[in-house]
Each structure stands twice: as C-alpha cells, then as structure tokens.
Amino acid sequence: MEEVTESEAAQNNITVNGPFQPLFSVKVPDAVKNGEILQFNIKVFKPDTDELICTVSRQYEDLEWLQHCLMTENNINGIILPPLPAKPETDAKAAEKNTKKQLGSSTNVLMADEFHVHCHSVEKYLVLVLEHEVLGKDKETLNNFLCQQEPPIRAKLKRGIMSRLSSAVEEARKGQHRDIDEYFHKQREWSTEYSKAAKEASQNFNRMLIAQMRLAGCYGHFATTMSAMDVYRDATSVQINMLLSKTAEGMEDSKRGMEVLCVNDEKTLARLLDLYDRYMDSVKEMLFRRTSLLVTYEDATKTLEKAKPAKKAAAEDAMTSSKKAYEECTAVAKKELKSFMQQRIISFEGGLSLFAESQIKTARDTYTLLVRTLKAVKEMDI
User: Fold this and answer.
1) Which of 66, 135, 162, 255 has the highest CB neighbour count under 10 A?
2) Could you say which protein family the record assigns here (predicted)?
C-alpha cells in the first residue's frame, strides 16, 4: 500500500495563473522545534527553475508580520487575501490533547508532532501570496521576508478589547447594508452560506479521519491480543494459536490499510477543505471592505446634497474620492471573485479525483492482503 506523495497531493491545490510571473518559487521541506517555537526552513528558488537562491528560517509570527505588511503596503480593496494557516501548537499539553482527541482519552501513546502538515500549510500560503497579481508584485516586502537571513523586525500585533468591539459594531452596522449591485448582493449571500458549508465539511471530514485513526488503533490492539494468546501447549491450543496468529496478521494488514487511508485522506481532501474554509473568511472580509466603501460613498453623496455653499466644494471632493475608491474596489473585486471561483473549481476537481483514486487503490491493496490471509487460514490443517 502506497501513500500519496506530496507532489501528487499538490495537484489538488492548483492556482490559476495569468500572464503574471512570480518573483520567486518556494518550498518548505521541514521544520525544527526550538523550545516552544517551530522554525520553518524555507527554500527560495528562481521562478520555474531549480536554482536555489537561499534558505531562510522563519516562525509563525513572521508570517503574521508578512501578512500585516502586505495589507498596509498595498491597496487591498477588492483583493481576496490568501488566508494565514493555523498557528502550530508545539507544547506538550497541546500534543497530549491532540493525541487524546484522535486516539481516545484512554490511550497511553503520545502521537509524534506532525510538522509536515504545518510545513505544507506554510508553503501553500507563500505560494498563494507569490502568485497573486497584486501582492506578488510587492518586491520589497517579499524580498525582505524571503531573501534576508534575519527575519524582518516585527512589532507585536495586538487587538485590544476596544478595537474588537469597534470592529463588531462596524460589521453590525454595515454588514447587512443592501448592495446597489445585484451581482455583489448575491455574492454576499453566497459567501455566507458557502462559508458555513465549507466549515461544516472540513470539521466533519476531520471527524471522519479521527474515527478512522481510532479504528486503526482498535485493529492494532486486536492483533496484539490475538498474538499474545499463546498459553497452553496441548495440540488443540497450538492449532488455535496458529489460527489466531494468522488472523492477527490480517488485523495488522487492516490496520496498515486504514493508516494509509488516513494519510492519503489528509493529503488529498483534509488540507483542501481546511484551505477553503479559511479562504471563505477572506472572501467575506473582502466583500465587507467593499460594502464599507459603498456606505461611505452613499454617506458622502447625502452629505453633498445637504451641504451649505461654504462646504459644498469639500463635500464634492469627498464624494468624488469615495466614489472613485468604491468603483475601483468593485472592478478589482469582480476580477478577484472570477479568479477565485476558477481556482476553487480546478482545485476541488483535482482533489476529489486524487481522493477517489487513493481510496480505490488502498481498498484494492488491503483486499489483496486480506485474501492472502484468508487463503492461508483455509489451507491450515486444523
């Protein structure tokens, strides 16, 4: 039984490329735990070549700072920002909690750190940034992040309670505002519903993976128990022990098949569902920014209508400026949404195909092994 390779799994994360050429290509092959910090080793190449430019070490907070710089150094109105991956949990308590969640509360085993999952998420995030037609042109920010050995000096990003409260009030005030463009009104409704569906699909798929992991563990316990039942040495007991030993081999084959299935499912669909669960938050944020510009434009228009002669010129300038920002955002947003829809369809087409192929292949391999065990049992002289 073979696991899906990383290169094969990458087929389900295709990005729709236009004429824009990225400044770099990147790979994140591994990560090193330094205390409670996970350091990602990022290999930076010239685009479309294997020529290595440099290798740098970055941690999750550096990614947060990169996202912050991209948002502040570029006009992000209308842009769907690539979503940051989940922050890795590297402390012992988190590892124990994750193990009990996946294998059950009664387990005495501690699962190994899955650094490869975090490496893939970080690599995918950087690829999406580099291939974005706007963010990928921010040469200074990307060069500082990817080509300087020392990470950029970052300020700690904090959001106080007043800031969060202000954002919540703003979203409540503008989030339900009726859009004057029917296309965007439908997109906002779609994004809300699809976001819920994407989150539910990702959570349910992960629950299925956890159930499969626990089932694999049960197969292993069953096999161990049957292999250990070698107490009596009379003729009947010997024959029973031979039968149990051979059956235990079948249980081990089932365990291995289920483990391969879990690994392949995680590489093919789990990552993809998690990515688009996060991506939908970025879509909703983009649409909210556009709605905020629309509200500002409508408020400026109303102010101009009521402005006194002395303030007429200033009100007109404000209305013109807000109208321009809104129209530019709308134009960019339409292009971004079209690209996002294409990317989503292509990604899920590849992901579902690879998922189905791995399911069929693993099932066939497991079946072959179990048939071999069954044949051996039937041929036993009992």
Assistant:
1) 66
2) Belongs to the sorting nexin family.
The closest of 218, 228, 211, 229 to 252, measured between CA atoms, is: 218
Taking a C-beta distance cutoff of 8 angstroms, is the pair 224, 247 a contact?
Answer: no
**Residues 29-65: tens digit of each pLDDT:** 999 888 788 999 999 999 888 899 999 999 999 999 9
E-state strands within the chain: 25-34, 37-45, 52-58
User: Which DSSP state fits 267?
Assistant: I
Relative to beta strand 25-34, strand 37-45 is: antiparallel
CATH topology of domain 12-159: PX Domain (3.30.1520)
Instruction: Return the DSSP state at 133.
Output: T
State how far the alpha carbon of 150 is from the alpha carbons of 143, 146, 153, in Å.
Answer: 12, 10, 9
Q: What are the structural domain ranges in the chain?
A: 12-159, 195-381
Contact between 295 and 177 under an 8 Å Cβ cutoff? The reply is: yes
Q: What is the DSSP string of 173-202?
A: HHTTPPPSSHHHHHHHHHHHHHHHHHHHHH
* Residues in a beta bridge with 33: 38
* pLDDT tens column, 225-235: 887 766 566 77
Q: Of residues 20 and 17, which shows the higher confidence score?
A: 20
Percentage above 90 pLDDT, the chain: 62
Q: How many C-alpha atoms does 363 have within 13 Å on its Cβ side? A: 7
Looking at the domain 195-381, which fold is it? Substrate Binding Domain Of Dnak; Chain:A; Domain 2 (1.20.1270)
Report phi then psi at 316, rounded to 5. Answer: -65, -40
